[in-house]
Design a protein that fits this description.
The chain is mostly helical. Helix content is 81%, strand content 0%. The protein has nine helices and no strands. It has helices at residues 2-37, 39-53, 57-68, 72-99, 102-109, 114-125, 127-150, 162-168, 178-205. The N and C termini lie far apart (52 Å).
Length: 211
Amino acid sequence: DIFSRILNGAKYTLIIGFGCTTAAAVIGIILGSVAAYYEKMDNLIMRFIDIIMGIPTFMLALSIIVALGASILNMMIALAITTIPSFARVTRAQVLTVKGQEYIEAARSIGAGNIHILLKHILPNAFAPILVQYTLGTVNVILWGASLSFIGQGVQPPTPEWGLMISQARTYLRDFPYMSIIPGIAIILTTYALNLLGDGLRDAMDPRLKQ
């Protein structure tokens, strides 16, 4: 029944959302940190990021999937690649802000290495905006994943993924509209909840609101 498929499909939707975003966050944080901390690498890495960002996200993901083949794994790879630039740019901006603080100079003056400074001093103090970006990035990945599955380039039947369920129910839209409406409501509620979580984290971690 539809309700059972919705519950089972939540597993795939959340795995796609959090899995792609986690992979993209790890790679993006590494690239953004290296670009901001090592000035010689900044121009090279960020121009590569700009090239990726210059391609429309959905078209880039679709092109990668067409090249690799339609499957849930290839869709996750494509969505992870398209999500990396946002994390790289946010991380770079935060690292550049924190890198000039006095406690970073103090750590460097007592002989702390670059890796130690990045991991122990810079990234923990730049983590709040990255965490907010993680929740918002998960929302985007869920929507893109559902869109790709809807056009047959993501999750394949008979896997009960929400976007695929909407696509399969189009034939019965006139007589049984709930078959498409219910998966759509599930997507709306999930993305809305994650947006609220992102807004809550941003407000909770903003020191200006605590004064």
